[in-house]
Every structure is written in C-alpha cells, then in structure tokens.
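Q: Convert this sequence to structure tokens.
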Amino acid sequence: MTASDCPSQNYPFLTETGKNRFPFRLATTSFIYPDHIVPNVRMLEPFVDEVELLFFESTGPDSLPGPAEIEELTQLAADHQISYNIHLPLDISLTADSPAMRNTAVEKLKFIFDLAAPLAPTTWTLHLPAEDAANNFHCWHERVGQSLNRLCPAYIPGAHLCVETLSYPLEWIDDIIAAMDLSICLDIGHMAVHEMNWAAFYRKYGERIPIIHLYGFEKMHEHLGLDRMPADIRRSTGAILKDFTGTVCLEVFSYAHLEASLKILPTMI
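A:
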C-alpha cells in the first residue's frame, strides 16, 4: 500500500504485521480507524489475514453496508487475499420476551445473510442475550431454540453460526448447540472477567470453536490491547494458540490497542 491508496483521512500505518505469520488466521475489527468499513479494510489488509466486519446496528441509513460496498469488499478480498467474518447486530435479540421483537430479529438476520453472502464469511458471530434466564430459564431456553430453528439450516448451516460466550455458562444451551450442530465463538475476555474457566471450556468444546476473540482487559474494562491482559492468562492463551488453526480476532476498536496487540501477540506463541 502506498500513501496514495490511503483513505481520505491521514491515518497512521501499523508498524507490525500479522499477515501470513501464525498457524491461525489473524483478524481484527472493521473499526480500528474512525471511518466506514471499506476504508478500514483498505488500511488493514496488508497487516491481517481477516477482518471482522462489525454489523453491530441493524437500523439506520448507514448501519449496514449497501450492495456497492459489498461488491467493493468482495473485490478487496480477491485482490489482497483477505477473508471476512461477520459479527451480527447487537440491537436485536432472538431471545426477547416479545414475539414481535424475536420475529424482527429473525427477519433482519435473514436479510443480512443474503446481503453479505457474496463475502463468503468464514463465520457469523451471534449474541444470545440471557438477561431474564435466571428468572424463567425454561421460557428463555425455549425462545432460543424456536428462534434458531427458523434460521438453521434453512438460511444458514448451523456450523457456520457461532454463538459467542458471554456472561453466562454456554452449557445452558448445550442441547441446542448439539442438536443444531452450532459452532462457538470463544471470547476469552468475556469469560475471564466473569471468572469462568475458559481454558476448561476450550478443552471441552474445542472442536466446535472456529474463532477466538482475544484482547486485554482490566477488571470489567474489556477490549483493550494485549499489553493489558494479565500475564497468567497471556501464558495460558499462548499455549492453546500454538495449535489453533481457525481465526483469532484481536477484538479491539482503536489503532493504539491494535498496535500494542500486534507487538505482544508474537511473544505469546
């Protein structure tokens, strides 16, 4: 990449590269620079193997890329040997108590699957909120299964859909994961800050984990650079990454946190 290839803003270049460097595909998010998805991908493609496209919002005029942007992203992938994974919206819920809200979520996800299909994402990461699960577990569990049954396998194979580890034990839906052959996104930070044993979880579910979210954290402050990851977790994470062949996403949202992470990551492997 040359200076003439840069987006309109004078953004700093990364000084470390992780592209074609590790046994896994190294990814980061599409919001490292305060700009749209395409300019971020243009800046990042020399330094990573994959970009996590953040489709965090499902409504609004600029919440999702349009067909022209999808076409441009497809061409960038072909020209620069880069792949994508997609993080599905956070403002919709397949587990909402309201049937209308769940239906809206299902229909929006169908739209996104069709929209982004040309990008051939390696994975699609999904949050399944569990705010009221403790109060009425049976109803929550039933809503999870009903909503997912409307999507898998009719609109997406279960193995392509990765349920992300959040603040509750994913074992709560172990039966649904097995029945629908779902995959899992292991977010080490989420599990660690909630004092869950992520290493034991990886040993149990490793064959279902094609993507790992990795970042530093301090107490409840997440998505920091790897220089802010506790040393003991850094060591234990490095031990599993040596043999991991899926996607490791440095899930940070700034140049400074990514730059720090790219410097630390090679020392962990």
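The chain is about 35% helix and 15% strand.
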